[in-house]
Write a structure and sequence with these properties.
Blueprint: E1 7-11, H1 16-27, E2 31-36, H2 39-51, E3 56-60, H3 66-80, E4 85-88, H4 103-131, E5 133-138, H5 151-170, E6 176-182, H6 203-217, H7 222-235, E7 239-241, H8 247-272
Parallel strand pairs: 1-2, 1-4, 2-3, 4-5, 5-6, 6-7
Length: 274
């Protein structure tokens, strides 16, 4: 996949990683469409990219709404004639102690982080089956390694990884490439999205957000992650990973799975021959 002269739709494209991904695609010759709930921010971001010599457009979209996603896909086709690359980037963060998390907040993050990806895929895949294309679903390292007090975020990002793994196999013969981006800490404001949760903000929520500021500020620049992600798109690499120093955590999880699978294998082998 060469982004040059392609049309790329990026959700959550007005800021942070989404804008960085759009810029990286645009710098390689793609026309980029920034879809974001904040239309004013999307317009400003598109104007910034245009000032850098990038062909950029913008649309308003809440990815939690299948109808809105379908409408922007139709609009992009009307304006630009194609959708060659889809980047399902829009997402929010939500943590908390299990047993104390409001179910409306759970529904909020599932609707955006998981169903937002599903809505994008369902709207675009029928088009790409005819023309070919590429899909990047943005998950997180939290989709491969769970952290405590981050249940909703872990669950949605694990779901995106699993969904994308199946999607790659399903679309392997359809001329549609698929990757899942699983970064660790990036210098963005995603942690502040917690402040938008439906149940309202408590002092504990504000403390969590404030505590995350130091962690986020030590992360990788979004532009560096975006450039690497588009390198991986061009190489058709499935897992797009960052932060090599976190590899031991994944290895530890893998070893736990192997150890427990060995126990299961021993049990069922014995049972089969009893």
């Amino acid at each position: 996949m060469d982004p040059n002269n392609k049309v790329a739709l990026v959700t959550g494209g007005a800021s942070g990683l989404g804008l960085a991904l759009a810029r990286a695609l645009g710098a390689r010759g793609a026309t980029v469409i920034l879809a974001d709930r904040d239309l004013s921010a999307a317009e400003g971001a598109a104007q910034t990219l245009q000032g850098e010599g990038i062909a950029a457009d913008y649309l308003s979209c809440d990815v939690a709404s299948a109808q809105q996603v379908g409408e922007i896909v139709t609009e992009v086709l009307a304006r630009h004639g194609a959708i060659d690359i889809l980047v399902n980037n829009a997402g929010v963060a939500l943590g908390g102690t299990s047993g104390e998390i409001h179910l409306e907040d759970w529904q909020w993050i599932v609707d955006i982080n998981l169903m937002g990806v599903v809505h994008g895929v369902e709207a675009v895949v029928p088009i790409m089956r005819k023309t070919g294309g590429y899909i990047i679903n943005v998950a997180s390292l939290a989709g491969l390694h769970a952290n405590p007090d981050m249940g909703p975020y872990n669950a949605t990002k694990f779901a995106v990884v699993g969904y994308t793994e199946g999607l790659q196999q399903e679309l392997a013969d359809a001329n549609i490439g698929v990757s899942v981006l699983c970064p660790a800490w990036i210098k963005t404001d995603i942690h502040r999205s917690t402040l938008q949760k439906p149940s309202g903000i408590t002092a504990v929520d504000q403390h969590r957000v404030d505590a995350m500021e130091n962690v986020i500020s030590s992360g990788i620049d979004a532009s560096e992650v975006a450039e690497w992600a588009i390198d991986c798109l061009q190489a058709e690499r499935f897992y797009i990973l960052t932060h090599p120093d976190f590899l031991p955590m994944l290895e530890k999880r893998h070893q736990r799975i192997l150890a427990d699978y060995a126990a299961a294998s021993s049990h069922f082998s014995t049972a089969d021959h009893a």
